[in-house]
Amino acid sequence: MRKTRPERRQGASVVRGRLVSDSTYDQRLLDRRGPAEWLHMDPWRVMRIQAEFVEGFGQLAELPQAVTVFGSARTPEGSPEYETGVQLGRKLSEAGYAVITGGGPGCMAAANRGAREAGGVSVGLGIELPFEQSMNEYVDLGIEFRYFFVRKTMFVKYACGFVALPGGFGTLDELFEALTLVQTHKVTSFPVVLMGTEFWEGLIEWIRTTLVKTGKISSADVNLIQLTDSVDEAVRIIVDADRGRGARTRGEREAVWNTVADAE
Q1: pTM score above 0.85
Q2: d(Cα 5, Cα 234) in Å, to the nearest integer?
Q3: Looking at residues 6-21, what average pLDDT do you find?
Q4: What is the Cα–Cα distance from 88 to 114, expressed in whole angstroms?
Q5: pLDDT tens per residue across span 231-250
Q6: Residue 51 — very low, low, confident or very high, per pLDDT cuts 50/70/90?
Q7: What contacts 111, CB < 8 A, 6 or more positions away?
Q8: Alpha helices in the chain (DSSP H)
Q9: How would residue 20 be classed by pLDDT, with cut points 50, 70 and 90?
Q10: In terms of Cα–Cα distance, which of 236, 170, 180, 175 is closest to 203?
């Protein structure tokens, strides 16, 4: 049997065999142990980081309105969660949205699959990991990143809504980052939808009984999260928020025009 060589994606590159490093770019960026060589290396890393931003902005700038979908890479194909992801990707595409995922397997592949099968735009934003995770076959536009924070920027910048299917640490990371951006008004009218009542209700209850009760967040902050088992409802929440944002934008323009007219 032929032995498979180790392989790793590094941004736009793929390395195999002995060229695969035992650490990732993020690890080397964040690790300050050892000698002070990082003092001389970090300025060069800034150039690489800048290049990733430029590449991401250039590739994604002309996307239609998009929704970012997150969920576990470990969700097996054919499971109820996987089928929900497929339906979600399909319904979002039918509503006119591009679908952005992390580009991996599981729930991510499901959402990309639904979008592609519906004739929509299917986007995957991959990341270099210590273990190989290939871009799923349903991605039409795939971009590989070295740095998590660059990738996270792309997830948010080009989306008008966020849907989280059941997932692990990565999904929770993205979920709470999105909630923090909305809570602090760093993004405007950005609905955050959790799909899977049974999976998420324990977290929601903990937020209500612990975070709110101890004053860590306000009771109004809980309303930033919308929980549903219905794909149609999830899409409706996104569409309604999108329309509301458009109405507010038109209202703001009209207010400016009226002010100018009054001044004249």
Answers
A1: no
A2: 42
A3: 66
A4: 7
A5: 999 999 999 998 887 655 54
A6: very high
A7: 69, 71, 85, 86, 88, 89, 92, 99, 101, 165
A8: 25-30, 38-60, 80-94, 107-117, 148-157, 169-183, 197-206, 231-263
A9: confident
A10: 175
Q: Which two tokens stand for residue 192?
A: 């955050």
Give yes or no for residue 254 having a pLDDT over 50.
no
CB 70 within 8 A of CB 174: yes
Assign 151 a pLDDT band (cuts: 50, 70, 90).
very high
- Per DSSP bridges, beta strands 13-16 and 7-10 are antiparallel
Q: How far apart are CA 213 and CA 198, in angstroms?
A: 23
User: How does DSSP classify residue 62?
Assistant: T
- What does the pLDDT read at residue 257? 39
* Average confidence score pLDDT of the chain: 86
**Are 114 and 88 spatial neighbours (Cβ–Cβ below 8 Å)?**
yes
Q: Domains plus CATH for the chain?
A: 56-190 (3.40.50.450)
Alpha-carbon distance of 251 to 257, in angstroms, equals 10
Identify the residue whose tokens are 């591009």: 98
Q: What integer pLDDT is reported at residue 10 of this predicted model?
A: 66
Separation in Å, CA 100 to CA 57, 161, 182, 207, 221: 14, 10, 19, 27, 25
Contact by Cβ (8 Å): 69, 99: yes
Task: Please give the single-letter amino acid code of residue 39.
Answer: L
- Enumerate residues 6+ apart whose C-beta is below 8 A from 207: 217, 222, 225
**Single-letter residue type at 171:** T
Gap between the terminal Cα atoms of the chain: 83
Which residues lie closer than 8 Å to 110 by C-beta, 6 or more apart? 71, 75, 77, 81, 82, 83, 84, 85, 86, 88, 89, 165
Query: Which residue is listed with tokens 């996104």?
Result: 238
